[in-house]
Write a structure and sequence with these properties.
Helix content: 10-25%
Number of helices: 9
Strand content: 25-35%
Number of strands: 36
Distance between the termini: 72 Å
Structural class: alpha+beta
Length: 671
C-alpha cells in the first residue's frame, strides 16, 4: 500500500506548488530531474490517452544513446520517471535527452527533451513529427539517434522550434509571425500528425497504408510510426499526394492542410510540392537593425550564424550592422561569452556576399555598399568571436573596393573578391597588407578554397572562372575557364574531389568544372532558376539558392543536385536534382508576409506579398543538417530597386541536408 501511495504522489507531481505540498522531488533537485509526462494521441481538448505504453528516456552527448530511465504509462497515459543529474552536462558540451513511447510493434512516438531535460512532456504524434524532422540526419539505420554534442543540441532546439514538447502542440514560433499562416508549416505539421494518428488510433489499414507509402531511401518498409515519419523527413518529395490523402482519416490536429493546399491544387501560392518543414526567422535582436537583404551566412564553432545584412529595411541604403543568430534562429544575446546581435562597427557598411571565419575564430565581413550611402572605398571588417570590432571604424580598406566573396585558406590567408576594382586581394595570415591580382577578367564575385590551398574565383563581368594560388607572397593563375556569354557566374563551391560548382544566374545554369579546368557538367532546368549562391553538404551534394526572376508572383526555391561523390538516392546521377521539379519551396497558408515590425513586406498600403521564401543569394548547411536560406531580395525586386529591395529574414529548412562539421580552429597550416 505504501508503494502505491508513493506512486500516486509521483504521478501528481506536475508543478512546483504540488511538489512543495506533497513532498515530491522537484525538477530542480540537486541530483535528479523528475519528468512528469503523458502519452496521448490526437490534438484538441480531448486527446486519446495511451495506456500501457513503455516509455524509455535516453541521453546522448557523443556517440550512441544510453537509457537513463524507463517506465509505463497508466490508464490516463500519465507517467513519471527520475533522470539522474550528470555533471558532464555543460553549456559547452551539452547532453541531449529524448523519450520514446512504444505501445505496440507498430506504434512508436518520440519527444525531444532538450538538454535540461524538460521536467514535463506530452508525447504524441506532433512531438514525433517535430523530433523526426529535427533529428532526421542524426538517425542511424536502426532509427536510434547518434552524433556529437553540438549537432544534437542544435537538433533539439529545432524540434522545440516546431513543437513544444511540454504542451504537445505547435510552438509559439510556428504559431506566430513570421510563421503562423504566413507559411504552411503549422498546417503541414498538423496534417502529418493526423497521418500518424490514423495508425496510432487503430483505424483499419491505416498503418499498412502509411508504411507502404514511406519506404526508406534503400526501399525498406518501416515497421512503426516513428520509422515512417523519419523516412518522410529524409525523402520529402516521395509519395506526396498519397501521404496527404492519409491525413483525412483522422483530423483531430488543427490547423491542417486544406484541399486548396494539397499537392493536386492549382493555386500557385498554396500547392504542396514536398513534405519539408521550414522555420522562418526575422528577429535581428534590435529594431535599430532589422533584417534587410541578408546575403550570406558563416557558422562559428558554437553553431552561431553570422549573417551579412545588405540594407536598411524599406530603403536601398547600406545597413551598418550584421546579424548573429543562435543555432535555433533566435538573436544572439551575449550570454556565456557569445555575441550580442546586431553587430556594428569595424567598417560594416552594406555587407555583401563575403563573410568567413578564419583559423583563429575571427570573423571577416566584406562591405559592398548600396544606394545613396555607397562608400568611396571598399572595406572588410574584422571582428572577434564575440563581435568586438578589431578593424578600425572605416574597416580595412587597403587594396579593396566593394568586397564580395571572402574565403580563408589553410594558411589563414584571407581571400577577397574586390568587385569594384576588378582585383583578387589576399591579406596574408594576420596582416592587412594587400597582395592584389588583376588581369583581363572583371568583377570578381564568388570565392572558394580547395583542400590543397587553391582558390576558385568567379568573374561576373567577363563570364569566366579562374583558379589561383597564393605562394611566397605572390598570387598566380593556373588557368581561366570561359563560360558562355551572358552567364554572369556568382557563387562557387568546391567538393572533396576538387570540382568547382558554379552558379550562372543569367542563364539559369549550374556548371561542374574539374580540377584541371574542364567543364564536366552543365545542368539546367530541375527547378534551377537564376541561381546565385551554391554550397555543398557533407555528402558532397550541391545546394543551389535561386534568385529567380523579377515576377512578384513567382515562387522561389532551393534545389539539391547530386554531387560527384555518388552519395545520392538510387538512380540519381551527378547533376540530377534530388529535389522535385519545383525545388523545395515554402508555400503560404493565406496570410500576407509581415516584417518583424509587424508592417507588411512592402509597407503600409502597398500590395500584399504571400511569398515567405524570397529571392535567395545563399544556402548553407549547419551542423545538424538544416539549410539556412537567405531572403536577400524582395520578390518584385526589380520594381523596388530604387526604394525598397531588401528581403526579410532567413528560412531554415529543417533536417534536409547532410550535416557539416564545425569550423576547426588552430594555427595556420601549410596547404
Amino acid at each position: 500500500m505504501q508503494r502505491l501511495i508513493l506512486r500516486l504522489i509521483a504521478l501528481t507531481c506536475t508543478s512546483f506548488l504540488i511538489a512543495m505540498l506533497t513532498g515530491c522531488p522537484s525538477s530542480g533537485s540537486g541530483n535528479s530531474t523528475v519528468i512528469n509526462g503523458v502519452v496521448s494521441s490526437g490534438g484538441g481538448s480531448t486527446p486519446v490517452a495511451i495506456e500501457g505504453a513503455t516509455i524509455v528516456v535516453y541521453q546522448i552527448q557523443s556517440g550512441t544513446p544510453s537509457v537513463v530511465a524507463q517506465t509505463t504509462s497508466d490508464g490516463a497515459g500519465n507517467f513519471s520517471v527520475k533522470v539522474p543529474s550528470n555533471s558532464a552536462n555543460t553549456s559547452s558540451n551539452p547532453i541531449t535527452y529524448y523519450a520514446v513511447a512504444s505501445k505496440s510493434p507498430s506504434i512508436q512516438l518520440m519527444a525531444s527533451l532538450g538538454t535540461g531535460p524538460l521536467s514535463a512532456v506530452r508525447i504524441n504524434e506532433l512531438t514525433t513529427v517535430a523530433s523526426a524532422y529535427a533529428f532526421a540526419q542524426l538517425f542511424r539505420d536502426d532509427y536510434s539517434v547518434a552524433g556529437s554534442a553540438l549537432p544534437l543540441s542544435i537538433a533539439a532546439g529545432m524540434a522545440e522550434n516546431l513543437v513544444s514538447a511540454e504542451s504537445g502542440s505547435a510552438s509559439k514560433v510556428i504559431q506566430t509571425s513570421p510563421n503562423g499562416y504566413e507559411t504552411n508549416t503549422w498546417s503541414a505539421l498538423g496534417t502529418l500528425a493526423n497521418v500518424l494518428a490514423g495508425c496510432t488510433q487503430g483505424v483499419a489499414n491505416a498503418c499498412t497504408n502509411l508504411f507502404a507509402l514511406t519506404p526508406s531511401t534503400g526501399g525498406i518498409t518501416p515497421k512503426n510510426t516513428l520509422q515512417a515519419i523519419v523516412n518522410i523527413a529524409l525523402n520529402p518529395a516521395v509519395n506526396v499526394s498519397g501521404i496527404y490523402n492519409l491525413g483525412s482519416v483522422v483530423t483531430s490536429y488543427t490547423p491542417a492542410l486544406t484541399a486548396s493546399q494539397g499537392p493536386n491544387s492549382s493555386a500557385p501560392l498554396q500547392k504542396l510540392d514536398a513534405w519539408t518543414m521550414a522555420v522562418k526567422v526575422n528577429n535581428a535582436g534590435s529594431a535599430a537593425c532589422p533584417f534587410g537583404g541578408p546575403a550570406n551566412v558563416a557558422f562559428d564553432t558554437k553553431g552561431y550564424a553570422w549573417i551579412n545584412n545588405n540594407v536598411i529595411q524599406g530603403t536601398p541604403n547600406s545597413a551598418n550592422c550584421l546579424v548573429v543568430l543562435k543555432p535555433n534562429g533566435l538573436p544572439a544575446n551575449g550570454a556565456s561569452n557569445t555575441p550580442s546581435s546586431p553587430i556594428t562597427g569595424g567598417g560594416i557598411l552594406g555587407s555583401g556576399f563575403g563573410i568567413a571565419i578564419d583559423k583563429l575564430g575571427f570573423i571577416w565581413s566584406g562591405s559592398f555598399g548600396w544606394g545613396n550611402n555607397v562608400p568611396t572605398s571598399g572595406a572588410v571588417a574584422k571582428l572577434s568571436s564575440v563581435g568586438v570590432p578589431i578593424s578600425p571604424d572605416a574597416g580595412y580598406t587597403a587594396g579593396l573596393l566593394r568586397v564580395q566573396g571572402t574565403a580563408v585558406d589553410q594558411s589563414n590567408n584571407i581571400w577577397m573578391a574586390s568587385y569594384g576594382d576588378n582585383a583578387v586581394v589576399v591579406y596574408p595570415n594576420q596582416t592587412t597588407t594587400p597582395i592584389s591580382y588583376l588581369d583581363s577578367n572583371i568583377q570578381p564575385f564568388g570565392m572558394a578554397i580547395t583542400s590543397d590551398g587553391y582558390a576558385w574565383v568567379t568573374y561576373t563581368g567577363s563570364d569566366t572562372v579562374s583558379k589561383l594560388r597564393f605562394s611566397n607572397g605572390v598570387i598566380s593563375k593556373l588557368f581561366t575557364v570561359t563560360l558562355p556569354s551572358g552567364s554572369n557566374p556568382k557563387g562557387v563551391a568546391v567538393d572533396s574531389l576538387g570540382n568547382a560548382w558554379v552558379a550562372a544566374g543569367s542563364t539559369s545554369t549550374v556548371y561542374a568544372i574539374n580540377a584541371s579546368g574542364a567543364i564536366v557538367g552543365t545542368y539546367t532546368g530541375q527547378g534551377i532558376n537564376g541561381p546565385w549562391g551554391i554550397s555543398l553538404d557533407a555528402k558532397g551534394n550541391v545546394w543551389v539558392a535561386n534568385f529567380g526572376t523579377s515576377s512578384p508572383s513567382a515562387r522561389y526555391s532551393i534545389v539539391q543536385l547530386c554531387g560527384a561523390t555518388s552519395n545520392c538516392p538510387t538512380g540519381i546521377a551527378m547533376g540530377s536534382a534530388i529535389t522535385p521539379s519545383t525545388g523545395y519551396t515554402l508555400p503560404s497558408a493565406g496570410s500576407q508576409v509581415l516584417l518583424n515590425s509587424g508592417q507588411p513586406l512592402y509597407g503600409t498600403g502597398a500590395p500584399p506579398s504571400y511569398l515567405p521564401l524570397m529571392r535567395l543569394t545563399s544556402v548553407n548547411t549547419d551542423m545538424a543538417g538544416n539549410i539556412w536560406a537567405t531572403n536577400n531580395w524582395k520578390p518584385s525586386g526589380l520594381n523596388d530597386i530604387v526604394s525598397n529591395p531588401g528581403g526579410d529574414g532567413v528560412v531554415i529548412f529543417v533536417g534536409v541536408a547532410a550535416p557539416t562539421k564545425a569550423p576547426s580552429l588552430g594555427p595556420a597550416q601549410a596547404p
